[in-house]
Amino acid sequence: MGLNTADQSEDKSWNGGSAQPMGASYGKMMMWFFIVSDALTFSGFLAAYGLTRFKLIDVWPIADEVFTHFPFAHGTHAPMYYVALMTFVLIFSSVTMVLAVDAGHNMNKKKVTFYMFLTIIGGVIFVGSQAWEWKNFIKGTYGAVQLKDGKIVQFTENGKQIALADFVSAQQKDAIDHTRHNGLWFESGDYNPSFTVEEVVASFKENPNVNLRIERIDTETKKKIIVSRSEGLKFLGEAARVVEGANLEVNEYGSSQFADFFFFITGFHGFHVVSGIVLNIIIFFNVIVGTYEKRGHYEMVEKVGLYWHFVDLVWVFVFTFFYLI
Amino acid sequence: MGHAANHKVLIWKVFGILSVITLVEVAFGIIKPDFLFMTQFMGTSLLNSLFLILTIVKAYYIVWYFMHLGDEKKNLRYSIVLPLVILIPYLATLLLIEGGYVHEVLAPYINWKY
Q1: Could you say which of A117, A138, B63, B83 is the most buried, measured as most Cβ atoms within 10 Å of its Cβ?
Q2: Do B76 and A80 count as a contact with CB atoms less than 8 A apart?
Q3: A171 vs B: CB within 8 A
Q4: Considering only alpha carbons, which residue of chain B is nearest residue A304?
Q5: Is the pLDDT of residue A292 over 80?
Q6: Do residue A151 and residue A240 come from a single domain?
Q7: Where is A227: in which H helix or E strand?
Q8: Phi, psi at residue B73, to the nearest 5°?
Q9: Is residue A251 part of a domain?
Q10: Is A275 found in the same domain as A136?
């Protein structure tokens, strides 16, 4: 203990030595310091997200319509099920972490090893799920058209959103993607969508069942407004480009800030999970080689556990603000 | 040994509570009952307020039982919780009010007719 602190004296506390006014060791307290500052960092991000969302309250994408995928179930509309599963995985890995800390208090090396292993597996499953979620988000499902002033319009049939491929008939496509490989210098070309604006507009005119949905939310029904056919044609007269999927500049779901915040906040959280897994792996091997057995206590498992629970805690809030509210 | 067994029971109990709350949240999020979803209260729907309260309950259980903050000394506990409890709602309140104001100012200028 003495080696970890500036205060090297082993005196009684009334001499100023070994005083622990907080009743926690140096390392544990520093972990708490870090957690408090990191919590404030995440609050800053989420508060900025809240500001942007209130600013664009009548055009913000509706989460249920964006996150609808479930593995091995193609084409089904499964809002939230997958992210709920991810939440469970993370909460469960938090439970195995507490069990590892608990086994550490009883100096049970075998059990600590086992529970640490389960915790690492849980973390890896979570990060993998998040990567899959990102993949779907980036690839997109339906596709949309962006107008000259930046608005996104989507297409519906019988009140349900449909994909561009469902109604657009493409002509022979002559354009190919310009990649770095065939470029003169290290540049790749603009994104080359599956359909051109002209094809989308022509197919919209030919299909009387297809309607246009704009970003704006009707305050009465809390649903995106579907405009009439004639109005839809006027909107399409302003069409600038076809958008498929999402990136930091534009996305098919609506306001570009929606995707920006999604990438940034879930990405920053995912980065925390990854570093948590790395820490857990280091501690896991330390447990196996008996470092803490020799040291006489498993406090290091507890400290890393604090960080792991914090990552879980942040996810609870990210889940609420991005998927529920 | 009896003490250790108690500890394990507590851990599983907390896990049960967290799971039930998550299930309730997801169920409400999918069904979106009209009386909660359509009722506006303090700038947002009652459903959103419910989600927020359930999230804070979850956060309490994680911090108090998983992170063992409940077992720490009182001064450590408060020096961690108080700054967060004071600063975060403060920041959130200011920014949300500001966001609502910016919306009020800008929204009338957005053109929805062509």
Answers
A1: B63
A2: no
A3: no
A4: B67
A5: yes
A6: yes
A7: strand A223-227
A8: -65, 155
A9: no
A10: yes
Note the pLDDT tens digit of each residue in B47-104. 999 999 999 999 999 999 999 999 999 999 999 999 999 999 999 999 999 999 999 9
Contact A23 B73 (CB under 8 A): yes
Query: In terms of residue numbers, what domain contains A50?
Result: 25-140+258-324
- Whether A184 shows a pLDDT value over 80: the answer reads no
For residue A289, how many other CB atoms are within 10 A of its CB?
9
Chain A CB contacts of B100 under 8 Å are 54, 57
For residue A185, pLDDT beyond 80: no
Which chain A residue's Cα is nearest to B71?
A23
Domain boundary among A217, A244, A271: A244
8 Å CB contact of A22 and B75:
yes
Alpha-carbon gap: A119 to the closest alpha carbon of chain B (Å) = 14
ipTM of model: 0.93
Residue A132 and residue A30 share a domain:
yes
Looking at the fold, whether A132 and A264 belong to one and the same domain comes out as yes
pLDDT at A265: 97
Residues A57 and A186 in one domain: no
Task: Tell me, yes or no, whether A311 lies in a domain.
Answer: yes
The confidence band for B44, taking pLDDT boundaries of 50, 70 and 90, is confident
**Contact (CB<8Å) B37/A316:** no
Same-domain check for residues A166 and A298:
no
Q: Please give the tally of structural domains in chain A.
A: 2
Pull the structure tokens for residue A194.
Answer: 């599956």
Are A211 and A271 members of one domain?
Answer: no
For the stretch A24-69, pLDDT in tens is 888 899 999 999 999 999 999 999 999 999 999 999 999 888 888 8
The answer as to whether A128 is a domain residue is yes
Q: Are residues A41 and A136 in the same domain?
A: yes
Q: Is residue A9 part of a domain?
A: no
3-state secondary structure of B40: strand
Query: Phi and psi (nearest 5°) for A215?
Result: -65, -25
If one compares A189 and B24, the residue with the highest pLDDT of the two is: B24
Cα separation, A150 vs A141, in Å, equals: 20
Share of chain A above pLDDT 70, in %: 88
pLDDT of residue A72: 79
Question: Contact at 8 Å (CB) between A207 and A232?
Answer: no
CATH code of the domain covering residue A82: 1.20.120.80
Query: Which domain-ending residue is among A244, A279, A308?
Result: A244
